Amino acid sequence: MTPERPRRADATDAQVETSSMAVSRADAPSALSDPGSAPLYAALDLGTNSCRMLIAQPLGSQFSIVDSFSKTVQLGVGLEATGRLSRSSMGRTIQALRICQKKLEKNNVRRMRLVATEACRRARNSRDFLRQVRRETGMVLEIISPEEEARLAVISCAPLVNPSTEQLLVVDIGGGSTELVWIDLSEVPPADRPKAIMRLHMGFNAQGEGPVARVVDWISVPLGVATLKDQFIDVDDDAARFALMSWFFEENLASFSPYNAQNPREGFQIIGTSGTVTTVAASFLNLKRYDRTKVDGLQMTSDQIDLVIREYLALGPEGRLTDPRIGRDRHALIMSGAAILQALMRIWPTDRLSVADRGLREGLLYAQMSADGVLDDGPYK
C-alpha cells in the first residue's frame, strides 16, 4: 500500500463522525463550574496491536483520568499475509472490549468516541468484525480516516509545544501505520501556539479566530511497528533486519513535502508519540517500572536515542525479551519501532525529540470536551 496523502498541500477538512453511542450535539453538556458535577467522557482506540481506553473528567483547561484500560490484543496478526482479521485475533479483541464496556457502564459514561484505525481500515472483513463487536458487546466502533487519526494525535500534543517553536513535526508511530504532520506556527504569537494547535480539532484547514497553525503537509505511511516487522520477518540477522527496516521506512517518506527541508534547527520541534518513543525514553532513564510523570515531556537528543537503540541491538532478541525496561508485550515490536524512530531523527533538522505519552485517546478527549465547551478555555473556535 502507498502512503495516504491529501489532495493538495494543505490537508483537507475532515468532519468529525460521531459514534452512534455518543450523545448528539443537541444533548451535549455545557461548561460546568462544579468539577464534581462535570460529565465523564470516554475515548477508545482499537489499533493494530493494542486496545486502549481512557475515561476522564474535565478539570480546568485539562482533564483528570477517572479510569483506564490497555491490553495487547494483536488484532492485526496475519493481516499482512491474508488481508483479513483472523478469528483468534478478533476473539482476543472482543474479550478486551467486553472489559471496556463494563467500565463504561460502571462509570455511567454518556459522551464517548470509540474508534478503530489501520487494521480495520485495511481488513476485508472489518465490517463483519464491527458487526460482531456490536452484537456481542453492544459497542459501536467507527473506523476513522488516516487524516483524522493524524489530527487527533496532533491536538493531544498541544500542551508540549514550546512557545519558541515555529516549525512543528508531530509523529505518531502506530501498530499498522505512522502519521506525520508538519505544522507552520511562524505567524502565531508564541503564547498562542499551543492553543492554535488545539484548534485543529475542527480540521486541518480550520481557520478559527486570529493567527492560525498552518498544516504544510501530512502523510500516513501504512507501516507501523507490526506491519513493518511483518515486511522483513524472513530476514534472520537481527542487525541486518533493523537496517533494512529503517531504510525501507525512509523510502516511504520521499513524497512528504518537507522531507529534508532546509529549516534552521532553532525554532524546529519534533514531538514523538507512541509506545516505541515512550519505551525508548524509559530505557534511557533506566526505569524498571514505567513512570509516566518522568517520561511525558522528556527531551531526548539524537545521541541518547542512538545509544538506547545500540543497547537494544546488543541485547539481541533473547535479551530484549527479558529486559524489564522493554516489557514482554513490546519486545517483539521494539526494533521495528526503533527503525522508524532512527529514520526520522536521521532526516529532520533537529537533534532533539520531545517525548509524548499521549496520543489518539487524549486527542479524542480534547476534541469532545473542546467542542462541548467544558474546558476553562471554552470551545476553540
Helix segment tally: 13
| Average residue-wise pLDDT | 85
Structural class: alpha/beta
> Order of SSEs, N→C?
EEEHHEHHEHEEHEHHEHHEHHEH
Helix content: 25-40%
Please state roughly what percent of the residues sit in beta strands, choosing from under 5%, 5-15%, 15-25%, 25-35%, 35-45% or over 45%: 15-25%
Which CATH class of the largest domain? Alpha Beta
Read across the widest sheet, the strand sequence of neighbours is: 8-7-6-9-11-10
Shape: globular
Distance N terminus to C terminus?
A: 36 Å
**Do you know the CATH architecture of the largest domain?**
2-Layer Sandwich
Q: Roughly how many Å is the radius of gyration?
A: 20 Å
CATH superfamily of the largest domain: Exopolyphosphatase. Domain 2
Beta strands, count: 11
Query: Unreliable stretches, pLDDT < 50, 5 or more residues?
Result: 6-35
Quote the CATH topology of the largest domain: Nucleotidyltransferase, domain 5
Integer tally of domains:
2
Largest sheet: 6 strands, mixed
Describe the structure.
Helix content is 37%, strand content 19%. It is of the alpha/beta class and 381 residues long. It has two domains: 25-143, Nucleotidyltransferase, domain 5 (2-Layer Sandwich); 148-360, 2-Layer Sandwich (Nucleotidyltransferase, domain 5), CATH 3.30.420.150. The protein contains 13 helices and eleven strands.
What is the structure about, briefly put?
Helix content is 37%, strand content 19%. By secondary structure, it is an alpha/beta fold.
